[in-house]
Each structure stands twice: as structure tokens, then as C-alpha cells.
Amino acid sequence: MKTKKLILRILTLANKGGEGHVPSSLSILDILDTLYANFITKNKLNKFILSKGHGCLSFYAVLEKYNIVKNLNSFCSFNSNFGGHPDKNKIKGVESSTGSLGHGFPFACGISMAKKIKKEKGKVFALIGDGECNEGTIWETFLLGSHHKLDNLICIIDKNKSTDRALMIDDLKKKIRSFNWDCFVINGHNKKMLIESVKKQRKKPLAIIANTIKGKGVSFMENNPEWHHKKIDSETIKKFKLIKNK
Predict the structure, then answer these.
(1) How far apart are CA 174 and CA 115, in angstroms?
(2) Is 166 helix (H, G, I), strand (E, B) or coil?
(3) What is the structure's pLDDT at 96?
(4) How many of the other CB atoms lie within 10 Å of CB of 220?
(5) Are 103 and 137 in contact (CB under 8 A)?
(6) Packing angle between helix 56-65 and helix 3-17, nearest 10 degrees?
(7) Does residue 100 register a pLDDT over 70?
(8) 47: β partners
(9) Over 70: is that where the pLDDT of 230 sits?
(10) By CB atoms within 10 Å of each CB, which of 40, 71, 113, 155 scores lowest?
């Protein structure tokens, strides 16, 4: 399933369920698709946690693409397993229930530590939002990761500038490196750059700052705060289809 089809799937689900943080989901779609295509489905020892749980529409769509989940059409309907935030107890392939900002990354750190203690192979990927970097638990986790030398832990930061309207994050790379992590800055929509950055990890935990566009792939949503949690109606989908087919 190509990216435009995945985007249409996400818009359709948001319309049917009457719910969803669509632009926040679209900014991470390329990251998720790349991780699952190259690192998660090909190595069952690798784990992934979506810390920015409100971006779950892309997560669900990618899980569906790789035949990990089914019945996604029930998104946000009564008694559906697929709610507005991912639930570990209901959805196959979800390693941690997330939604409250700053919680998924610490879980990923714990899983990484457990792997070290058990001498298990495999990496643990955590995808966080730049807005989550306003939470103290994020920086406590950066501290723990370096203290315990978790060279199996990779944190990807979706830097879609969501936080800029509330609190400027300034030099994020400098901050992370001060916690003794390796850190690279990439174009978050460049799949090759992401793959190469993951493969560069050596003896430290790794952070990848992925510069992304909120609402990527839907031109009238891109970097437009009006769409942060706006309802997706049938007219929105028609407008996207017209643009897609040009």
C-alpha cells in the first residue's frame, strides 16, 4: 500500500469514527512505515512503542498494512479495540498503552533494560513527539538511558513543531547530546536517511530528531493548526482525492 493510499485510509477511518488527530498522525506515517518495513517485521526481537499515542491512526494503518491487525473499520466505534489511543490489552502488536504524554518513552527504556538483564538481542524503538519533550519523564528517561548504557534503545523525535506555539524547544540536539546520547538530525520523510541513522548506532543510546511536516501529504492540512483535531467529513476526503488525482 503506497503512502497516498495509506493517507486515504487514515482520512476514511477518521471520518467513519468521528475522531482522530489526523495531522499528528500524518507527520509520523513515513517513519512508522519505514520502521515496520525494515526493522520490526523483519526481526521479531525488535520492539516498537508509540509514545505519542494520539498519533495512533497511522500506527493502526501500518499495523493493518503488515497484516498484524484486522477489523480496523471499527475505529472509535462502541466496544471497538481500536480507540483514540492504543491499548496493549486489546490490540496485537501494541507493546504499551499510551496517550498521556511522556509515558511511552519510559516504558521503552524499561523494556530495553529488561533485554539487557536477560541478555536478549533486539532493539527497542520509541517514537515521541516534540511536544512530549516538555514532560519531565522524557528527560528522566534520557538520563536513565545513558546511565545504564542502553545501546539497544533508539528514540525518534517527531519534530513537527507542534510545541512551538506553546514553548520553543531551542537546540534539541545539543540538549540530548548533553545527556550522553548519540544524536542525528534527519528529514523525517526521507526513508533512506532514517534507515541509515538507525544502522549507525554504536555503544550509546541513540536519538534521531526527525524534522517532519504536520499533516504531511494533505496540502491544506500541512502546518495548519486549524486541523489539529478537526473533524474529517466527506468533503475533506473529496478535496484530498481531487488533489491526489491531479
Answers:
(1) 28
(2) coil
(3) 94
(4) 12
(5) yes
(6) 120
(7) yes
(8) 124
(9) yes
(10) 71
Give me 15's grid cell: 471520518
Q: Domains of the chain (ranges plus CATH)?
A: 3-244 (3.40.50.970)
pLDDT of 165 over the 80 cut: no
Smallest CA-to-CA distance from 47 within 117, 104, 131 is with: 104
Distance, first Cα to last Cα, the chain? 19
Residue 211 to residue 158: CA distance in whole angstroms: 7
What's the DSSP call for residue 226? G
Model pTM score: 0.95
Residue of 111 and 170 predicted with greater confidence:
111
The DSSP code sequence of 184-221 is EEEETT-HHHHHHHHHT--SS-EEEEEE--TTTT-TTT
Q: Which amino acid is at 81?
A: N
Those residues whose C-beta lies under 8 Å from the C-beta of residue 21, and which sit 6 or more positions away, are 54, 55, 57, 84, 228, 229
9: nearest Cα among 28, 26, 34: 26
- C-alpha cell of residue 101: 504524554
